[in-house]
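Exercise 7b. C-alpha cells:
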C-alpha cells in the first residue's frame, strides 16, 4: 500500500519512517528545493524520546545530545522561581535531549531510502479520496498525511471552514551562541519577556527569547541586547557572542482546536493539526508522537483488518484529545508568564511557594506518554 506524506519536516519524516518500517511504500513531498533545516536548537523531552525509541532512533539522538533535565526558571534578577529536582525528574520521566534541529533532521533523512524524498514539489490541492494535485502531476495513494505545517494546504483544502491560526501575542527569537559555560538549561522570566538557554554537546549554547509585541514587529540582535542588558548572567554575555545573521525571528501563532484530524483517506499531523505555542516545548514532540500512533493505527489497514478510513478515525481518537490538552496547557503557561494577565508579584510569589514535587507531578500528563 502507498502513503504520501506532504511536508518534509520533523513530523513528516518521522511518519514516513514509521510507515516505511511497517511495510508501506512511502513518498515525501517537500516544497523546498532541498530537505534542509535552518532552525536553531531543539529540546526533546522524555515523551518525544520514547517516540524516537519506537522509530529506533532514540539512542542515536542521545549520543549526540546533552541529556540533562532543565535546571529551572529564574526571575530577571536571577532569583530562582522554580528550582527543579533534576534527579527526581529524570528518575520519573527519563532523559531530555538538547541538540541542533539540523542534527535531528539529518538522522531522520538517513533512516529513509533516498528515493522516498521528493523535494521541490508544490502541492496545490488535496481531495478526501486521497488524490493530491501537485506541481509534478497527480498522485492517488492509499493514504495522505498532511504534515505541512501551520499554513497547511492539506488543511485548507479539506477543512475550509476551520478557524485561521491566531497570533499568540508575542514574537520568538532563536539563536546559537559561541561556547560559554552555563549551569544547564534555564529560563528567565521578566516583564513581558522571557529568555532561555541550554547547552549543546559541542559547547555552544542554544538560546531563545519570547517578547510581547504586536504581529509583524521588527526586531533584531541589537534590540535583544538592549532589552536584556540588565538581565542576570550569563544572558548579556550570551547575546554579545551571537553573530547578527544567526538570529531567527518568527511571530508566534497557534491553531484553534479542530473537530477532527482525519477526513476520508487524509490525516493531519504535527503543526498542520495542532500548532501550539512553544511554552511547553512540545511542538516537535507531539509531531513525533503523532507519527508513531498514526503508523500503528494504519497497520490494521495494511494487513486488511480494517479500512484506511477507519484506521484514520482511530488515529484521530487517540491523538486529538491529548494534543489539544497540551496546546491548552502551553497557552496557560504563556498567560502565567505574561504580567499583563497575571501581576508579576503574584506570579512570582505563587511559583516560589510551590514545592518542587508539585512541579514534577504536574508534568505527568505531558511527559508520561508511553505510546
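Sequence design result:
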Amino acid at each position: 500500500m502507498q502513503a504520501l506524506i506532504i511536508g518534509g519536516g520533523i513530523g513528516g519524516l518521522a511518519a514516513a519512517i514509521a510507515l516505511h518500517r511497517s511495510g508501506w511504500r512511502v513518498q515525501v513531498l517537500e516544497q523546498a528545493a532541498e530537505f534542509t533545516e535552518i532552525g536553531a536548537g531543539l529540546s526533546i523531552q522524555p515523551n518525544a524520546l520514547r517516540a524516537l525509541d519506537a522509530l529506533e532512533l532514540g539512542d542515536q539522538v542521545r549520543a549526540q545530545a546533552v541529556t540533562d533535565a532543565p535546571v529551572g526558571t529564574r526571575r530577571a534578577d536571577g532569583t530562582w522561581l522554580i528550582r527543579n529536582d533534576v534527579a527526581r525528574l529524570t528518575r520519573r520521566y527519563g532523559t531530555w535531549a538538547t541538540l541542533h534541529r539540523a542534527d535531528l533532521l539529518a538522522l531522520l533523512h538517513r533512516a529513509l531510502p533516498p528515493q522516498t524524498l521528493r523535494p521541490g514539489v508544490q502541492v496545490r490541492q488535496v481531495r478526501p479520496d486521497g488524490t493530491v494535485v501537485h506541481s509534478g502531476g497527480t498522485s492517488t495513494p492509499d493514504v495522505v498525511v498532511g504534515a505541512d505545517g501551520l499554513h497547511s494546504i492539506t488543511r485548507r483544502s479539506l477543512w475550509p471552514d476551520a478557524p485561521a491560526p491566531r497570533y499568540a501575542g508575542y514574537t520568538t527569537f532563536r539563536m546559537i551562541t559561541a561556547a560559554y559555560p552555563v549551569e544547564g538549561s534555564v529560563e528567565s522570566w521578566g516583564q513581558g519577556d522571557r529568555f532561555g538557554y541550554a547547552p549543546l554537546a559541542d559547547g555552544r549554547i542554544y538560546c531563545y527569547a519570547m517578547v510581547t509585541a504586536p504581529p509583524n514587529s521588527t526586531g533584531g540582535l541589537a534590540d535583544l541586547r538592549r532589552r536584556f542588558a540588565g538581565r542576570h548572567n550569563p544572558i548579556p554575555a550570551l547575546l554579545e557572542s551571537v553573530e547578527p545573521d544567526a538570529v531567527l525571528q518568527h511571530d508566534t501563532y497557534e491553531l484553534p482546536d479542530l473537530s477532527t484530524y482525519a477526513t476520508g483517506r487524509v490525516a493531519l499531523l504535527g503543526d498542520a493539526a495542532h500548532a501550539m505555542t512553544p511554552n511547553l516545548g512540545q511542538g516537535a514532540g507531539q509531531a513525533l508522537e503523532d507519527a508513531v500512533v498514526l503508523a500503528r493505527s494504519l497497520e490494521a489497514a495494511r494487513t486488511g483488518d480494517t479500512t484506511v478510513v477507519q484506521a484514520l478515525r482511530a488515529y484521530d481518537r487517540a491523538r486529538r484529545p491529548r494534543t489539544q490538552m497540551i496546546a491548552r496547557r502551553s497557552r496557560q503557561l504563556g498567560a502565567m508568564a505574561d504580567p499583563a494577565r497575571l501581576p508579576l508579584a503574584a506570579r512570582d510569589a505563587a511559583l516560589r511557594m510551590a514545592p518542587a514535587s508539585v512541579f514534577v507531578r504536574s508534568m505527568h500528563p505531558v511527559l508520561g506518554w508511553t505510546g
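Instructor comment: Residues 294 and 315 are 6 Å apart (CA to CA). The chain has two domains: 2-164+254-367, 166-252.
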